[in-house]
Each structure stands twice: as structure tokens, then as C-alpha cells.
Amino acid sequence: MVAASGLAALLVLVLAVVLLPRTIDGSGIPSAAELARVKLAAAQLGMVQAPAVKFNGHVDTRGGSEARLDVVAGNTGELAGQVSIGSHEFHVTTVQGRTFLTGDAEAWRSLDPPESPEKLAGRPVELPQNFFGVNLAELAPAQLGKSLDPALLDGKRVTVGTPVVINGRLSTPITSGHITSYVSDPDQAIRAPEPSTSTMPTALGRAGASIQFVDAGGAGAPLPLPEQPRIDRVEMDTLSGKGQSGDKRATFKVDTSRLTPEQAQRFYVDYNSKVKELSEAVNPALRVAAQSSGHFVPSPCGTTSCTVNFQIGNTISASSNVTLQSVYANYTITITAKGGPRR
Questions:
Q1: Is residue 303 one of the residues assigned to a domain?
Q2: DSSP per-residue codes, 218-234
Q3: 319 and which of 144, 205, 242, 285 could share a cystine (Cβ 3.0–4.6 Å)?
Q4: How many domains does the chain fold into?
């Protein structure tokens, strides 16, 4: 009886192996996780190739504060848009990996800056890279797109969640390490069914009947390449691995949408104008203290002009997270002559 039971178990095992889904060449059918990774890779490629991407969402920093983002990131690191912190709004610009905020005095006062809020008002202010808990410069599509499957480097699988609707599209969450990307197929837009105008049966598939006419006289124009899957949302605990002080880890959640070539062109035109404004930027983490002394040179001194020699020294101090390389400072010297100031 025991032998019979063992034989039955063996037959069940063999039958299970034989009946496992196989492809034509005998290899196993990819699992849902493997198929999801293929779809994620295609969506990553689409993001890497996008000229610009719009991000709308929020960052919860380790310090517990929330920053709401409505920004556009160019493919190679350009970023501009609005950031709301509490009830205050700032304009944000990133260039060459550096981030600048512009806001009014009340907005700066809410952040308790090291400089007077009145001095910072209306001027671009450079921030530390980890100010938001994430480095906004890393939202560049070419960089972000390549970072969405960290588990691949560790040889680990992705996990697939239950699809959700995001901006009218049925999107599947695919989690790799600490990053979850919501990916939708090109044809996954949720639309109301159109009323049928024919009595002919159309239930030939999920998308209805599809007819393609081929010109028998020649090859004609090539068919367009199929559209890639889209990344509709990205969630992660951090991009830079660092955040503001506190125990809470920085979390990041943004919805994404690719810009059309025309929209991307307008973005770059506006972005270039914002970059020009950065010539007036300040950095509260950097201070320059100047010492000067001067005296008149008795000769030469003409009827309309005299010569003055000045000696100028300076002391530069910076926060611990600032590496000093070169600092440019403008000096204004005021001389009082015959009761009136001269510059």
C-alpha cells in the first residue's frame, strides 16, 4: 500500500512536469515577473529617449515636511517649475546638478534661512543637493529611466501588484528594490465604449475588429513602430540616499507624462530665460567678509581727478557641506569728497 502511494505520488510529479506550459522549442514560458521586467525595460527605454517629462507629485522629507512638485525635466538634467512647501510657493531651477529656489520674503521666512528673508526675496538661492531629501537634478529622464530596476543588478526578481487607474490609464505597479514604477500599455487608456452602428458582429477581441489593407502593387510606406509602454508613476524611498535631519526616510511619489516635441521646445526656450536669471543667485551657505583700506596719492592729482590706492582683503567661510573652489565677489567702493559720496 505504501509502495502504491509512492508510485502515485511519482506519477503525479511526472505528470505535473510534463504538463507544465512549454513553448514550441521546449523552453519554459516566462513567469509574470519576467514578463513584467521586459515591459518595465521597454518603458524605461521610452523614458530615456523622451526629450522632456512632466512630473507632478510630492516629496516627504526625512524631516517630516512635504514639498509638492509641478516641474518639467529635460533629458540631460534641465529642470524648472513650481515647488510648494506648506502654503508657500517657490520657483525651482536646476542647472548642471545645482538647484536654485526663488520665492518672496514670507516664503523664505517659513524655511528659517541663515540669511535675512528680505535679502533672499526675489533672488535665486542655491540649495544643498539633499535639501528635499532627493536630488531634483536626478529627475532627468535619461538618468531616472536607467535607475528604475535596481534589483536587476542584484539578480533579484521584480514583484507585480494589482493594476490601478492613473490619469485614465490602467497601470500595473512593478516593484524593483525600493522603487515602484507604474507601467501601462499603449492601448490601456480607459475609454467609454462607443455605440455600435452596425449589425455585424464586432466582438473579435478586446479592441474590436481590426482590418488592414495592403497595397498589392508595392511595399508602400513602412508601418510605424509599435508605441512603447509608458511609465505613469514612480514611487521610491529616496533618489540620493540622503535627506534632512530626522528619523523619517525621504519618500518620493510623482506622476509622469512625456512632453510632445513642440511642448519640449517651448520648455527649453523658457528654461534658457530662467538660467539667465541665475546670474543674480546667492548662496546662504557661503559668506565673504571684506576688509579694505585706502589713501590718496598726492601726485599725480589733476584738476578733475586724483589717484587713490586701495588694499582689499577678504575672508571666506562656508558650511561644512560646501567645497570651495573659486569664489567671485563684486566690490563697491564709496569715497566721500567735498561733502558728497563718489563711487
A1: no
A2: S--SPPPPPPPPEEEEE
A3: 285
A4: 1
Q: What is the DSSP string of 57-97?
A: EEEE-TTS-EEEEEEEEETTS-EEEEEEETTEEEEEEEETT
- Flag whether 253 is in a domain: yes
Q: Model's pTM, two decimal places?
A: 0.66
> What number is the average pLDDT over the span 293-322?
62
Domain ranges, residue 148: 49-157+247-279
253: its cell numbers: 511619489
DSSP 259: P
Contact 308, 343 (CB under 8 A): no
Name the β-bridge partners of 106: none
Q: Is 186 within the bounds of a domain?
A: no
Instruction: State whether the Cα torsion 118-120-121-127 is positive or negative.
Output: negative
Q: Match 548662496 to its residue by C-alpha cell.
A: 283
Predicted confidence band at 268 (pLDDT cuts at 50, 70, 90)?
very high
Considering only residues 294 and 81, tell me which one the structure prediction assigns the higher pLDDT.
81
Which of these ranges, 115-119, 145-149, 327-331, has the smallest mean pLDDT? 327-331
Cβ neighbours for 244, distance < 8 A, ≥ 6 positions apart: 61, 62, 63, 65, 130, 131, 133, 250
Of 264, 270, 315, residue with least CA distance to 291: 315
Residue appearing with cell numbers 487608456: 189
